[in-house]
Amino acid sequence: MISRIARKELLDTLRDGRFRVLAAVVLAISLTSLAAGWKHYREVQRQHAEAAAATRAQWVNQPAKNPHSAAHYGVYAFKPKMRLSMIDTGIDPYVGVAAWLEAHKQNEFKYRPAQDRTAVQRFGELTAAEGFLVLLPLFIVLVTFNAFSGEREQGTLRQLLSLGVRPFDLMVGKAVGLSSALAMVLVPATIAGIVGLSLTSEFGALAADAPRALLLGAGYTVYFATLIAIGLGVSARMKSSRAALVVLLACWFANSLIAPRLASDVAAAWYPAPSAVEFQKALDHDLADQTDLERRLQRRRAELLERYKATSLDAVPINFSGVSMQEGEEHGNEVFDKHYGRLFEIYERQNRLQQTLGVAAPLLPMRALSMGLAGTDFAHHREFVETAEEYRRMIQRVMNGDIAENSKPGVVYTAGRELWAKVPEFNYQAPSARWVLSNNVRSLLLMTGWLIVAVAFAMTATRRSRVD
Amino acid sequence: MFTRILRHEWRAITADASLWVVAGTIALAIAYGTFNGVVWVRFQQQAIADAAREERDRYAQQEEAIARIAAGQLTVSPFADPRNPQTAASRFAARYAALPPAPLAALSIGQSDLLRYYFKITSDTKENVTAGAELENPHRLLTGRFDLAFVLIYLYPLLILALSYNLLSGEKEQGTLSLALSQPVSLRTLTLGKATLRFIVFIGLIAAVASLATVIAGVDLRAPGAVPGLVSWLLAVAIYGLFWFALAVLVASLGRPSSTNAMLLASAWLILVVLIPSLLNVLATTLYPVPSRVEMIQAVRAAADDANTQGSKLLSKYYEDHPELAAGDAVQAMNDFNVIRVAVAADVEHRVRPVLDRYEQQLSGQQRVVAWLRYASPAVLMQDALNDIAGSGTARHHHFMRQVAAYHSEWRDYFVPLIFRKAQLAAYTGLPVFRYQEEPAAAVIGRVSTALVGLGVPALIIAIVGWRNLRRYPVTT
């Protein structure tokens, strides 16, 4: 019975002119957005790969100089573009693309791509994710709102029930039929996406993205299923198609436009973040406070004298300026860890609170999951920033270690390519899909919860639904 | 007759719950949006005040250090000497250039959360000086704020449509339309009356809540430009509302059932407010892609490497170009690190200018595309108008950035001769100060009125088409 209802529903939907127009629009938009995303990804990825190679070449081709000068010269860390960002650009336009990794300082990532765009950017990026999160739900509203109420208004509901069709079967059949219609729009778009992905990468990289991509597909399936269940439930519950449409449109608007902004405002008010001036001032204050550093330098001096049984540092085979510079770095690192750690923690808390507010709007957890899996959420940005910072600290350790071991106080010392090449190339590996899931437990739970509640709502709504 | 329709319509809609839901929603949203805007303006003002305080404290500290060095109580290394003009210009005497929020900034947050509103000006290259950004959670930048502009651009039209999608079809479906028309009243007068009443309700409500909210929030109406700004803001709200009412009348005139009207209007809203702006963005960035800034960084770096290896050669060339500076002990200056630094910086800026120009060309290409095609979306026009009125748009920021660039040059021009002369600063007085000059009011009014005309003309055309269609309206099915 269910399959017969589903087939009828599918046929009905496919014959509906509204559906055809909407399907064509959705397909056109997803293909446009995928093509634009693909082109953008390729360009940016190429530019970043070239720049990364260039900064490496500049580093190893430095002329002979003091290692500390080399440390000051430094390298740049360029943020690589994730392949799945062509589906969901996430926060990419709003975070800097490059940071200078130099001695003594953790520099922020500068140049947000959105600063090089016009104000229409703020209406939202036309990405596949935007289509899935915002436009497809509207499409679902428009095909489900009269699924039940329409039958009731035409008098066919009474007919169906008089034939002994159980309301439960009717609901499941309609859900299956509408989902198949939706799938007929989405499957071609997904195939186009896979083709796009495989055009950008050799097979190995595609396989590496497979877990993330599959999870992304599963997440959106749950999201759509939730929305279909809500749509059918409201259609069964409301007195008329008109009322169902108005209620569903209001829900859609609240979910896609009000909830994200409201959640972001609430989170920012709950966990206030400092301004750049305030942040810099606190950072400078702690950097300037060197009492702890002095104490540590005293200790290192004593240790060295003790180890080499010497009375003066001149008699020690280690150049103390290398040691003291490294201690200066360590002092800075502690300060940077404290301040950047605190700042990032504020943002993470804001983002977690936004996810939690997803109890009121399913878009919030789905968006977090989507950006997470696409590798374009704040957690990924932070991960990259911290990896780059780790690399910077490694450069400092290598340079200062060389000064301590090989140079003599008061003698001009230079090192060459051999030392520069000792610093391995900066190579960033994106974290695994499992890491993403562990970051998004909250979202996963909320989405499961939403699905269960939506299905239960649809079931009770059908059972209680009036016949006329 | 018309006033009688208005009165009757008022009784009819006040009896309906949907008016109170809509009115409550918009009043709440406007109050909250204004509040949010005010919070953001306070944040900006606080950040600017903090910057000014930091500058003041630093100046006091350095002045004191200078006095102590002069008195022989303090010795510092030449590089950390606050009297050294290079050190002063690049660190100790750095000054802030800030863009204060405009009087009506609370009405639209616009681009002000993305484009930085204060810079610490040093003798470093202009690109480095202006590269940073205000700290902000990127998720928040992506989502956008719930400000008054959001309420007006997105929510306001939807609520208009919610109250008027069944303008005529509702009465027709209840069977009261033919009854009403049996009175000596034409369908057009009836429609006009219904639309006018709803329009008055909306404008009155928005004007009342927003004015109340701005007054409570302490917006200074005596500030120059505040009153004309508020007037043009009201005008923008009215014309934007008119556009959506005209659309509702046009759809009503087609004589379809209420649910079809609702679908048509919701689709129109989606296309005009969500899809066209996003497509515009895709189009602009595809036609004029701005290369990733990493290309610029690499170009600057390559130029700097080159310039550094040629440092001393550059220096002699610099002296050729500026013989007035070479007077005195030029040979000695040759080895002066600071002098080379100035020469290198000048050379790097000269070399990377074409690269930087490309970014600006591409961005202005994007702006041209949007400027022409924005007439396809009332939402984009409304955004432009609101941002201009609030002073949080791109144009005012450009105006600010031009002044920042001029101030940065002034700053360097002040210090370079001192560096070459190897002078020592006796005090931090007389250093150039940044004073923001507000845009001329005429420029703002010009931009706002262009956008408003762009909104008003299509609204009028749609209204006329709807009006003409009404003649053929099928009163009975």
Question: In terms of topology, how is this protein built?
Answer:
The complex is a heterodimer of chains A (468) and B (477).
Chain A (H helix, E strand, L loop, with lengths): L1 H14 L1 H44 L6 H7 L1 E4 L19 E5 L2 E2 L21 H17 L4 H6 L1 H7 L4 H34 L2 H35 L3 H30 L5 H13 L2 H17 L12 H37 L6 H12 L3 H29 L10 H6 L10 H7 L1 H24 L4
Antiparallel strand pairs in A: 1-2, 2-3
Helix pairs in contact in A: 1-7, 2-4, 2-7, 3-14, 4-8, 4-9, 7-8, 8-9, 8-13, 8-17, 9-12, 10-12, 11-12, 12-14, 13-17
Chain B lengths: L1 H14 L1 H54 L14 H8 L2 E4 L19 E4 L4 H4 L8 H6 L4 H17 L4 H6 L2 H5 L5 H30 L9 H27 L5 H30 L5 H17 L1 H11 L1 H4 L3 H5 L2 H37 L4 H13 L3 H27 L20 H29 L8
Antiparallel strand pairs in B: 1-2
Structure description:
Chain A is mainly α. Chain A is built from 17 helices and 3 strands. Chain A has helices spanning 2-15, 17-60, 67-73, 128-144, 149-154, 156-162, 167-200, 203-237, 241-270, 276-288, 291-307, 320-356, 363-374, 378-406, 417-422, 433-439, 441-464, and strands at 75-78, 98-102, 105-106. Chain A has a 3-stranded antiparallel sheet. In chain A, a hairpin with a 2-residue loop joins strand 2 (98-102) and strand 3. Chain A is elongated, with a radius of gyration of 29 Å. With 477 residues, chain B is mainly alpha-helical. Chain B has 19 helices and 2 strands. Chain B has helices at residues 2-15, 17-70, 85-92, 126-129, 138-143, 148-164, 169-174, 177-181, 187-216, 226-252, 258-287, 293-309, 311-321, 323-326, 330-334, 337-373, 378-390, 394-420, 441-469, and strands at 95-98, 118-121. Chain B has a two-stranded antiparallel sheet. In chain B, helix 1 (2-15) packs across helix 9 (187-216), helix 6 packs parallel to helix 10 and helix 10 (226-252) packs antiparallel against helix 17 (378-390). The mean pLDDT of chain B is 87. At the A-B interface, helix 2, helix 4, helix 9, helix 10 and helix 12 of A face helix 2, helix 5, helix 6, helix 11 and helix 12 of B.
